[in-house]
Amino acid sequence: MGSRVEILNDGGFRSDGRRQFELRDMTIDLSQQGQADGCAVVTHGLTQVLVSVFGPREAKMRSQTMHDRANISVEVNVAAFSTGERRKRTRGDKRILELAATIKSTFEPVVQTNLYPRSQIDVYVQVLQQDGGLLQACINATTLALVNAGIPLLDFVCAVSGGVHSTSPLLDLTLLEENDIPNVTVAMMPKTGKVTLVTMETRLHVDRFEEIFRLAGDAGKVIHGEMKNAVRSRTSALVAAMGSGPRVGGVDVAADKDGDDRMNEY
Amino acid sequence: MVEITIRKRPRTEAVVTQRKFFKKTARGKVIKVLRERYLRDDVGCGISGCNACPVTDVVLPAAGDQTHRLFPNGHFILPDTNVFLSQMDLVESNLFLPPIILLQTVIEEVRHRSLPLYNRLNALIKAEDKRIWVFYNEYRSETAIVREEGETPNDRNDRGIRKATAWYNDHIRVTRPPIRGQAPPKLPTVVLVTEDADNRQKAEKAGISSISVRKYVEGMKESAQLLDLLAAEGPNQIEPTPVTSGRQALYPDYLSTSTCLAGVKAGELHQGHFSANVYNYLEGSVSVPAFTAPVLLIGRDNMNRAVHGDVVVVEVFDEKEWRAPADEVVDAESALKNDDVEYSGDEGDEEEEDPVLRREKQVLISEDVKRTAGKQPTGRIVGIIKRNWRAYVCHIDSTSLTSSNPTSLSQQTVFATPVSRLLPRIRLRTRQAPALIGQKILVTIDRWDVTSRYPEGHFVRSLGKVESKEAEQESLLLEFDVPYRPFGKAILDCLPPEGEQWVVPPKSDTSLEWRDREDLRDLIVCSIDPPNCQDIDDALHARYLPNGNIEAGVHIADVSHFVHPDNPMDSEAASRGTTVYLVDKRIDMLPSLLGTNLCSLRPYVERLAFSTIWEMTADAEIVNVRFTKSVIASKAAFTYEEAQLRKDDQNMQDELTLGIRLLNTLAQKLRAGRMAAGALNLASPEVKIHMDSSESAEPLDVEQKQLRETNSLVEEFMLLANISVAKKIQETFPQTSVLRRHLPPPRTNFEKLQDILMKRKGMALDVSSSGALAASLDRCTDPNEPAFNTLVRIMATRCMLSAEYFCSGSVSRDTFGHYGLASPIYTHFTSPIRRYADVLAHRQLAAAIGYSPLHASLHSKSHVERILDIVNRRHRMAQMAGRASVEFYVGLALKSRNEREKGRVQEEAFVIRTFRNGLGVFVSKLGIEGIVMFKREIQFDADNYVITVPASPTSDAGEVKIGVFDKVTVNIEVEKDKNTQRGRVKMTLVHPVDSTSM
């Protein structure tokens, strides 16, 4: 059956009706979830991830504390119902550990850990639903949850996956596409244009790589705009609720070229 | 930079955009599948001048097509899936050119139902002359639909198609609003074309214009030609006519597939390929593993609509009801001559029995009486596993025409008679019947209902005039499934870029061509081939060594240097399998640049070769053999005749001649050794056709091929090379080496021939081994008849199995032997230009001597087996095509001879078979077989293979007995069959009794 689905048909449509460079619908929910200091629910199409951040707080285990900076610990939990085949993954599952390690190493250079010596930042990633692009969803959600928790970051981290079908590059792959074509996930920092993560589990031709890499970088900027808007409207809603500061209506939610710089104040 | 956007999907749309379903895997696990899709408004309608759709390269004209009778305002057609599933031939026709809107739903459904049709459809979309716009209706927000509860996928798709049609019509109306003060614009209609009456009804209800394919085509300008391309419709769809209504079933229904498969598994039913009997259209057989003899099927009911080549399931009757095969020639053409096309199969009035049925019954009953000895399992077909229907080359039966007025365009039902006698007549409806008479046409079978005596088909295309060279050639190639298209660009791109200018580069250490190659350019090498041979793939040399031994070498064109594994040229060659030689045409396996130039071992030029070099004693005993890639420069290219003359001319004492003589003495010794080991000297009727010139179609004469000493010289060394290579590759790759074998024939095959020989000539044939057979064949001579021995050899050859390629790992070691050559192991190595198996052997040998690593595919047993299956089949087909081509030219030659000699072409012939009402004769001079039929009653002694022609009341001739192996004289005429326009050889006896009046 799977082989009978066309990844990219002659009309330039992908199997879900998108064109090559169209990203899936992205929704961001930054409302409070339980006791967490910051959390975010991010969906890319049918992939949904909830990230809760606790901290910075005192480390539970002394052995893990570092005298000059905070320790980031990432724990990933994949819900049994998130995939097509119902399967319970244990916490020791190697793939999950790897995912956690990837997220951790992505954020270590971005979070200003040196501001919080001898403390710990706990990131709990809960995967609610999967349809490709799991890593990108995890990273985007973690960024937003960290922002929501008020942890200082050097920049946003925006991740997106890309692949090549024959010679045509595609962005933001669904599970169907991920299973079929070589793909790469790129996480970048939009302000500096630096890349914090490139990961690939399939073979991709060198000649194609550069193109995909560049495209994924550009796509990261688009995702950044989306994330920024979400953060801003969440913050203004909070400010409005506190009854001080500018009125909700006063904040210009629409594209504001130097909104970026103001972002740092929040 | 490209534009990257996030596709927003409103939450409210989720009902239409998300789809969740569960599916069960093969292991029984249940998997939840969740899919989403993004609906959009920028999917273009493809109509030029549309202001609402994004501009892409539109293909549909704004006004639609205005030539159709029913739609004066212009129209587009929007075909349903069933149009492509059943009427692909129509859509592919280059006369069918209305603008087509093709829905994504339709494409996907076609793809789901049949991949071959999907591929044809894809080719159509890309075709230049068609105006097809693919509309992605599932992605457009207005036309996307979701399956409702309780709706079948089929109904859902139909609804989607209707919705898209409705949308298109709205879209056209909305985008072209009437402008005030002007007449309202003429709006083209989008018409739903479907074969499904139910769908049409629903469309009608929703106010969508819809039409059936037939009705649509009827309104077209070129309807006469196009209507023929329509596939026969199923009975549930056509309106009842007097002919179809009230028909009785003529055949029993098939069992369901599951019942058949269960029966086969349980051993109650048997599965096999159905093969029809050439001599008797009311008889067929199925070879099944459970019985040694094939299961006999007698009569139409028992053959139950099977067509030659179908995979069928048979039920075998009780042993009481077993019968022997018929010994009468029953010609469908004469027996069914007057069968009416329209009403055939209609029983009509109860008391008046169908004349056809009555006649057939008579035939069967009269045969029954005589069927005593040689009973075979008998049964009937109860189901069909797989139809092997394809397009068949046919002629229109002129008697079945109701009107032969050449300008008549009325719809007629006519019979098409396939060229192959194994196939039943096909009924087809056409409007151009008069124009098709005297043409070879291609016809496909669509279906065969229980109520119809004949299968129904439709016209595909015309090949050309009967007996025109082109039409006959193409029909031959189609009939034997020979791929004859020119090589595509991808294949030609695999050739060396230098083309004709390619030469062996000068010798150097760095050159790729010279790596590990031996320089044999100084050897006195020559090639010996038939006259006008262009693809020279072998050359030979022999010389004395200082130690008194002889060095002999066979040099084969190094095709594997040019044809690399797994590129387009290689896969094409693998699928072609072999070069096909017709009398006037060669269909190459490899592009001709390789075959006739770069790989051809032409004289005076350097060529790459793969050499097998033996050191032999003067008694032709092999001391040592080695294989090497080499570079040779042939010194001469002889024909067999030239080489023979040179060898025999004692004045010639140059090195070349000495080499040939040396080779010849060795060959004679090799041959003697082979014969002593029990090799068979087989014979097949081989004739040569003299052509006036290559352009003219008229062959001048036919003669038997002459065999010279030099033929056998080349043959011996090729055999030796093949055997040596076979040993080497089998040693190195015991699992996957490509070998060739000839299984010993089962002894039962010879029983009849032994019986005939014993009874008629008092000769015995010992078939216990190939050696014994060879010896006893040598004894079968008649001092008065030198040709008798050849005849017996031909008949013995026909009793044998055919040789085949196989993969050494897939059969047991003791069945490797080659029966005819009496060699324990054999392969094909010496003609890589024209046989694909040789290319494989070359690659394996190259790997065996460490020249190059073996490609991974040749390590896989299943892969090698798969390739060899195809090659075996192609090989068989190529042989048959070649023979048929010779037959056709013999027919032409006879015709021209008949004209010169005023219809008195008489030749001597041997009787090879006796029938209850005729004789099978073989004319060795022409290499043709024919049947002499007697209309008058004759006596037939089946046990002694003798017929007795009673004394004729009108003449004074007495009673004459004719038996198998008797020499007779026949008059040969080529008469055009009145019905089919097929030229066929008609033979009548001249001596010992004149049968013209009988």
UniProtKB/TrEMBL annotation, chain A:
One of its GO terms (cellular component) is cytoplasmic exosome (RNase complex). Keywords: Cytoplasm, Exosome. Gene3D superfamilies: GHMP Kinase, N-terminal domain. InterPro entries: ExoRNase_PH_dom1, ExoRNase_PH_dom2, ExoRNase_PH_dom2_sf, PNPase/RNase_PH_dom_sf, Ribosomal_Su5_D2-typ_SF, RNase_PH. It holds the Pfam family RNase_PH. Residues 22-152, 155-217 form the Exoribonuclease phosphorolytic domain. Its main location: cytoplasm. It is found in: Cytoplasm; Nucleus, Nucleolus. GO terms for biological process: nuclear mRNA surveillance; poly(A)-dependent snoRNA 3'-end processing; rRNA catabolic process; U4 snRNA 3'-end processing. It comes from the Eukaryota. GO terms for molecular function: RNA binding. PANTHER family: EXOSOME COMPLEX COMPONENT, EXOSOME COMPLEX COMPONENT RRP41. Component of the RNA exosome complex. Specifically part of the catalytically inactive RNA exosome core complex (Exo-9) which may associate with the catalytic subunits RRP6 and DIS3 in cytoplasmic- and nuclear-specific RNA exosome complex forms. Exo-9 is formed by a hexameric base ring of RNase PH domain-containing subunits and a cap ring consisting of CSL4, RRP4 and RRP40. Belongs to the RNase PH family. This is Ribosomal RNA-processing protein 41. It comes from Lyophyllum shimeji (Hon-shimeji). The lineage of its organism: Eukaryota, Fungi, Dikarya, Basidiomycota, Agaricomycotina.
TrEMBL record, chain B:
Its cofactor is Mg(2+). It is found in: Cytoplasm; Nucleus. Residues 341-354 have a biased composition (Acidic residues). Pfam families: OB_Dis3, PIN_4, RNB, Rrp44_CSD1, Rrp44_S1. One of its GO terms (biological process) is nuclear mRNA surveillance of mRNA 3'-end processing. PROSITE patterns: RIBONUCLEASE_II (PS01175). PANTHER family: EXOSOME COMPLEX EXONUCLEASE RRP44 (PTHR23355:SF35), RIBONUCLEASE (PTHR23355). This is Ribosomal RNA-processing protein 44. It comes from Lyophyllum shimeji (Hon-shimeji).
